[in-house]
Write a structure and sequence with these properties.
- With about 525 residues, this protein is an alpha+beta fold.
- Helices cover about 50% and strands about 5% of the residues.
- It contains 22 helices and 8 strands.
- The strands form 3 sheets. Strands 1-2-6-3 form a 4-stranded mixed beta sheet.
- A hairpin with a 2-residue loop joins strand 1 and strand 2.
- It starts with a helix and ends in a 10-residue tail after the last strand.
- The structure holds protoporphyrin IX containing FE.
Length: about 525
Amino acid sequence: MAEAAAFWVAYLLSLLFLTWFLFQKRSRQHLPPGPQGSYLYGVKNQLPPAEPWKTYAKWSETYRSPIISFRVYNRTIVVLNDIESIHTLLDQRAQIYSERPMSWMYNVICGRGKSVFNIPASNPRHRIYRRMLQAGLGQRATKEAWDILREEAEVLVAGLAKQPEDWIQHIRRNAAGVIMKVAFGYSIASPEDLFIKVAEETSKISGWAMAPGRWLVDYYPIMRHIPSFIPGTQWKRQGLAWRERLNYLSEVPHNWVKQQMKKNNTYPKSFTSRFLQSHLDDEDGSVFSKLKSHQGGEDEDIVKWCAGGLYAGAADTTVSALTSFVLLMALYPEVQRKAGQEIDIVLGIEDGSVDSSRFSSPISDMEQLGALGYLQAVMKEVLRYAPVGNLALPHATLYEDQYQGYTIPKGASVIPNVWAVMHDPKMYHEPFAFRPERFTNEGSAEPDPRQFAYGFGRRSCPGSHFAETSMLLSMANILTFYSITPQESSLMEKTRGLEFTTGITSNIRPFPVRITPRRAASYAPPA
Ligand code: HEM
């Protein structure tokens, strides 16, 4: 016991010394301005639990600089609050600014350092991942997934007829249904489905293990060497248990695909099966045969991590955007009416001409989606008004850099404040008004928010094209069959101002809406 106590005293003293050393070093650097915070924690206790993007924008005003910095424990965090700094640093200097902040708990102790989201861009694997994801989610792949997208959009609108009050669950199910089929060729049967449970447990554990500020080892990585049998290292035992569980969970869908491929020739084609097969064939022109940097069993490991990244990327993002869309349609009936009218005109729909009892999608191909110009403007305005990723995801620097006379240290976390850009009055006239028309006036149209909604540089979202096709199709189907109105009490929301959820993804905080059939004729909900 005395030995353990001596160990901890020595340990804490060395941490204190390290903090002092880094503090001295930091105070000699000319960092961007920002709040100082306390000696030990930095601003950890000043970070608000909700909507931190607003606080960063305020600090940017207070310190009269679009680029600000502060410290949490010993880590320097730089926030970019305007498009100029974001574009210069994250896009133009992408070779320096495309790392991710190191999470020692998640990457090392839990063994998740190879995940698509966390792997450093300087690791050659990241390039391979990006090319595979491009092949699996780009324009051609999205076209190939059209039937899946259409089928799942039909399940969504049919579900809304049965339990309209559970509309968020139906949107959630739609996102999971699409991505499970695309990634693994797996059809989910119910919200209790094994694959859904596996994916949800993975993202829950990942959320705990990556929670910023929660694990001291993230700031003082030397702690990772402490043996887990020493008293007071419950955190390490927890991390190691999570490691085992996460490894097991990532095997479940991957092994299922392999079994299907072994069992029969008519197995469902998917991202995983295509890459596994192209590896077996080693066919010329496959992504693997072009990327010769891989060796032996590494290929399969790469496929597994990429397929895991598909679910992680798709699970909450389109759900957030569609949730905000439904709520905004309830609050802006004129926008809803115009979008519905466009659908009717472009698709030649008259009230009696859609079979509302079968919910078959009136949109037969991607070209028809392309013709819905107003609906596309609505989608852009949803992505601007209620950004899914208000802070995108943090990048980190590979080297020290200089910008406008400031030093950006090596290893600093660099956060683009997407919310500030989307609500910058220099870019968007009356930025807090929801007005899709800002994107329809040719010649005077405001900047396309999709340039900012999907992140930046070498880390920008590889799923953007796929996501937009999926979202537009769902939006068009919802507005074909349904009318969305606010409950009386919800009208207050508009006058009081909307609230937004806080997390890696964000959406308007849900309030009660009514989803009713838009076309009374021939409407008969399925039994
Ligand atoms: C509304 C829909 C979506 C939005 C707004 C969105 C936004 C983003 C953002 C902001 C990032 C971080 C970019 C950065 O670090 O600079 C990202 C990364 C990523 N997204 Fe998306 N996303 C969406 C849908 C999807 C979908 C449907 C998928 C997959 C099917 C996907 C897969 C990914 C992946 C794999 C990454 C990690 C890229 C990397 O770290 O190299 N996303 N996304």
